[in-house]
Every structure is written in C-alpha cells, then in structure tokens.
Amino acid sequence: MKKLNEESLTLGVCYYPEHWPEEMWEDDYARMKELGFSYVRMGEFAWSIFEPEEGKFCFDLFDRAVAKAQVFGLKVILGTPTATAPAWVTKKYPDVLNATQDGISYQHGARCHTTYNSETYRELSSIIVTEMAKHYSDNPTVVGWQIDNEINCETNVFYADADHAAFREWAKKKYQTLANLNQAWGTVFWSQTYTNWEQVYLTRKTVPNSPNPHHALDEKRFISDSAFAYVKLQADILREHAPNQWITTNGMFGHLDNHKMTDELLDFYAYDSYPNFGRVIEDSSEKPLRDRKWSWNLSVVRSISPNFAIFEQQSGPGGWVNRLDQPSPKPGQLRLWTYQSIAHGADMILYFRWRTATKGTEIYWHGINDYHNQPNRRVKEIEAVSKEIKQLGKIVGSTYQVEIAYITNYDNSWDGEFDIWHGPFESKSRNAWIKALQYNHVPVDALNFNNETTLEDLSKYKVLVYSHAAIVTKQQAALFEVYVRQGGKVIFGCRSGYKDETGQTYMKALPGYLTDLVGITVEEFTRVAPFEQVPRIKFREFDELEANDFNEVLQLQADVEVLATYTNTYLKGNPALVKHNYGKGTSYYFGGVFNLDLATSLLAELQLNNYHDQFSLPEEVELSIRHKEGKDYIFLLNYSELPQEIFVKEEFTEAVTGTRIMNKVSLKPFDVLVLEP
Ligand code: GLA
Q: Which atom of ligand 1 is nearest to the CA of 44?
C-alpha cells in the first residue's frame, strides 16, 4: 500500500491567491509561517487564469504566488484545475459536458460539469496538465500535485453521449460477445435481450424508474474505471514531466475504487475531512456518533494509505450560499478534529481554508480567518494545536494498532445502492458495529476485500466482520474458510453469499458458498413488515432483543452452537444466531441486521483488547493507538461538550507536556490527551 512519507507531522492550509489582492499575500504567508504551517495548497480551481484563452498560457500570477511562498519557506502543492472547466471550454466544446440521466447537459456556472469520457475534455485536460507540469517541474517550492479536485464530487453519475459510447466499448471489452453480456445482465427477463451493440447504453430513464440491476451494477464499475482512466491520464503526464514531485488526489467520493487508484497511480492518498457534517446529518439511531463517525471514514482512508494526508481539514462553520449549512465548531472542536485525523494515521493536515471567501458559492464555508482578517477564536485554537503538534512530530509514520477489521467491498456497496434487500442493511449493521467498537474502546480497521485479497491480508486480524456479504464467489468463500481454519474469527449477517459477481442469485440454499464455513443454511426468510410485531430473539443477557428489518430461519447443517433463537411470532423457537467452531477458528452467522445491543454483546465474547487493564474510560471518549519503534502512542479523544473523568491505571507520560500522569484525570469538553509510556 502507498503511504505518505513525511519527516514530521506537518500542517498547512488551502490558499487561493487569485481570490485576494496581491498586496495581501505577504502578510498571509507571514502569518501562516507564524502559525507553524509548512504547506500551502493552491491552483486547483484556476484554469481560467492558467489558460484564459485556448492555447494561451499564463502562469505569472501563480509564479508570483509560489515565489512569495518560497520567501517564507512554505512548500507548495499544486492542483491541476480540471474540476472547473472555463467558460471558453464549454462554449466551444459542448461535448465535454456531463448530462443528467435524461440526457440534458449540465452547463457552465458551478463546477464539475464535465465528463471524463469526452475525448475533447481528455485532450484539453492533457494540454493544461502538460503545460503546468512542464512549467512547475523544476520549481523547488512545488513539492507535489493534487490531480483534479475530489474526483466524483458533486455528481458521481455520467450520462453524456461520450459516456454511453465509452460504456459500449467497456462492455465489449468485458464481455466480448453480446451473448456473454446478455447472460451477465440476465436480459432474458422482460425481453431485454440486446442483438446489436448499438442498442447498449448506460441505464436510462425507464418505466418505472427501475433499470436492470445487473446493468446498474456494471454502470458503477464503468464509472469507477472511467474516473481511474482520467486520473491515469493526468498521472502519466505528471510522472513524465515532473518526475521529482509527488502525486496524489483528495477524496473520498462514490463510484470510485480509491484503493486501486492509489495503488496503481498515486504516491499516497489524501482525504478531505468535514466532521461537522456529522452534527447536521439526520441520524435517528440510538446513541449517534455525530462527528465521531468520521473516525470510521478515516479508517477507510487508512485502508487505502496507512499514513495519509488531510488536504482539507474543516476549520469553520460551513455552507454554500444555498445549502450544506453547518454550525460553527465549538471551542475545542477544531483541535479535537485535528487530533482525530492524526490519531487515525494522518501525518499531514491542511486546513480548509486560510480565509473565508468573500465572493461566490462558498461565502459561508468558513476558513480559519474571517472576512475581517483580524485574529479570531479559530486562528488562536489552531495556533495552540500547531505548537502541540511540534512536540508530537516523532509519531510520524507510526502505524495504527488494531485486532479487528470491518470489511468493505466495492461490488457489494455498488450493488447495494440499487438493492433494497441488502444495501440499506449494510449501513445499519456497520453503524451498530462501529458504535459498539467505539463505545467499548476497541480500535477497528476497514479492510477492502476483493479478488486480490490474500490470506496474509486477512490474517493480520483476529476478527473480521462482513455484515451483509451478498456477492460472494466460490474463491472468496474458500479464502474465508482457510482464514478461519487457521484460527481467525469471522462474523456474517443476513443476506450473505447469495449472489454471484453479476449480481444474479445462485440456485443454492443461502448463504451459498459460505454454507460449509458457517454450518447452516437459511430455511426461510422474511422482511419485517411495517405495523406488524417485530420479531425478537433471546441472546445472553437479553431476553427480548428486537431483530429488526429482516429475519432468517437457520437450519443447522453441522455441529453448530445456537446462540440465539426467536422468541415470538411464527418464527418462535427457531435459531437466529449460531456459532460454528471450524478448524482452529470460529464463524458466526446472524440471520438478521445487527443493532447496537447485539454487536456490543457479541463483541464481549470475541476477547479483543479493549485496554481496560490500562484505562477506565467513559463511552464519550475514543481510544486510538499509533505504534512506532516499540512504543504505543495512545490518543484519548473526548467528543462530548461535557468534561469526562478518566482513570489511568498505569503511569504514562503526557506526550505534549512531558507530565507524568496516573489515576484520575479530567478531560475538558472536546479535550484530547496523547499518552506515551
Ligand atoms: C470540498 C472541496 C472544496 C470546498 C469544500 C467546502 O471539500 O474540495 O473546494 O468546496 O468542499 O465546500
């Protein structure tokens, strides 16, 4: 896996020199330097400055901005500006524009209005990226490149003519013959059979709006491949013309295999972290994680790049003029979110943005500095964080300590977007597991599972959770079998193992090829209907635990232990949750959707390290550990606006101040403690 290689923890900021009078730059850079920043990211939306007319290149403004940054010892990361095609591009070449599923073109006026598959757009992108790469390749201040900006942000579906044509070619390459394609998409159903390649399109508006699901799954794979090819186009140019500067891009958005993109094209992965969304997104579930949910996002980022960069760390209240409104971070939250990123493996953090824009769509997306540019609470908080980070530089490159992984899988997540018989269950079960792990102080990784995953990848973990593994091939099931036989533990939920890679169902009892491993088949299943009694199960301390959403009746096929049975409805007395000792390991199968109580209770029997020998921690506090050269660096993060009492059972050193601590310690609201032995 590709990772960021920094020499110390570093901070920086996103800066838009083109938004400000040039007389301000010097003062801005001077204050960045005072704040201890090392990096400035710029240029990613400035195409119309770099190329105001077709073929006329103009680098003066950014040359001066980069040169001035050099005077202040700041390093520059340049963005390629292809997320914002200028008006001259779209006027002269309307074929570059993306379209809605109805085929109506997007227009100039916001950003991300183009499509990766337009040959014209690829050509225009190559030209501007080549010119920029040549121009800045020898500039010692420019250390690296961000390709485009947030690939697949704003929209992650593409329906322009160029996309339909490219999809046709993609399908030809994948299936070779129409017979194969018809087979894979099951087109015999509803007479959808294709008899000529010209009949093949991306999904279009249908009556009702329900296109063929196997086709819809391939559409997502195609979008990911298109985005990959577009990033590759730029990466190849940058590698050729600017071989001494690193390359990355910032994410993370849908319909893109970020793992493959990073492994094959980038030097490391960068993420844009906006935990404040967690405070405004509707979450009616029990004990919502709010901004702490971003710890899971950061775990996914870590599964792409074990040490990564944050290219946009939220640093103020948020909002576009017309949407996405968010509250101001409370005192302490900017510090908390910075440490949240670091605790999960970020070694470089750039705040978004230096100063709030005074014009355009994002006048409410606040930077560190306000419009008035006078010292404010947020700048002071970041100044204090920066001083602390200096003391923690040594943890750079350290690795996250973990015993359990929650499995992610692109095929299942893309298939699940369109399949209400497993897709919605995954996020419910994942939330339940992530909460159970968070509130019990058990650190968790994300593990991206695919056909290249090896036994070695799985064996790094004592326990794997794969909540609703709908698509599971014979080979994948065999890999899980070996993992468990050698001592691993794996947990599956309902709707596992019933689909092949096209998204069609096997003519087998569920859970398909997983049957031997889990020791059961599914005798029958049902969805929980609204307004009907919710089935309940008896499990350990719970006499009556709700088994919401979906219920499977399990039929024992091997010597399995029944851990829970249904206690009401016509399901009463039937097994719902089983444990199967298999080789040296164990598999668990639950014929339902996990909830917090069940995940918490199962967690208790998995015997994972929850660090209770060293600490007694309230639920509000997250524990994360980074390890380097025989030393654990323990991050304790308080997400609550109330003070929290923690109890430290061994003596530790507080890494920032060097103070020895033990016994009772009080964490202030949103406070963070970093401990070392
Ligand atoms: C994203 C983008 C930024 C900015 C912020 C805030 O992360 O990369 O350009 O738009 O969101 O909206």
A: 9
* Catalytic (active site) residue 150: yes
User: Is domain 404-606 given the CATH code 3.40.50.2300 in the classification?
Assistant: no
| pLDDT, the chain, mean | 98
pLDDT mean over 221-250: 99
Q: Which fold is adopted by the domain 10-156+224-394?
A: TIM Barrel (3.20.20)
Instruction: Determine the Cα–Cα distance for residues 600 and 622; give it in Å rounded to an integer.
Output: 16
> Which of 312, 381, 388, 426 is an active site residue?
312
126-149 per-position pLDDT tens digit = 999 999 999 999 999 999 999 999
Taking residue 479's Cβ as centre, other Cβ atoms within 10 Å add up to 19
**d(Cα 447, Cα 450) in Å, to the nearest integer?**
10
CATH 2.60.40.1180 in the chain: give the residue spans. Answer: 615-676
Kindly indicate the confidence band of residue 95, based on its pLDDT and cuts at 50, 70 and 90.
very high
Q: How far is the CA of 101 from the centre of ligand 1 (A)?
A: 25
Ligand 1 mutation target, pool 147, 150, 297, most atoms within 8 A of CB:
150
- Cβ atoms of 550 and 592 within 8 Å: the answer is yes
Query: Separation of 318 CA from ligand 1 center, angstroms?
Result: 10
Q: Is the CB of 365 under 6 A from ligand 1?
A: yes
pTM: 0.98
* H or E, element range at 510: none
Domain with CATH 3.40.50.880 in the chain: 404-606
Residue extent(s) of CATH 3.20.20.80 domains in the chain: 10-156+224-394
Q: Which of 82, 149, 152, 277 has most ligand 1 atoms within 8 Å of CB, for mutation?
A: 149
Any ligand 1 atom below 6 A from CB of 90: no
Atom of ligand 1 nearest to the CA of 362: 12
Of 150, 219, 381, 481, which residue is the catalytic one? 150
Domain at 615-676: CATH architecture: Sandwich (2.60)
Q: What is the pLDDT of residues 343-382, one digit of tens each?
A: 999 999 999 999 999 999 999 999 999 999 999 999 999 9
DSSP string, 601-664: HHHHHH-----TTTEE--TTEEEEEEEETTEEEEEEEE-SSS-EEEEEEEEEEETTT--EEEEE
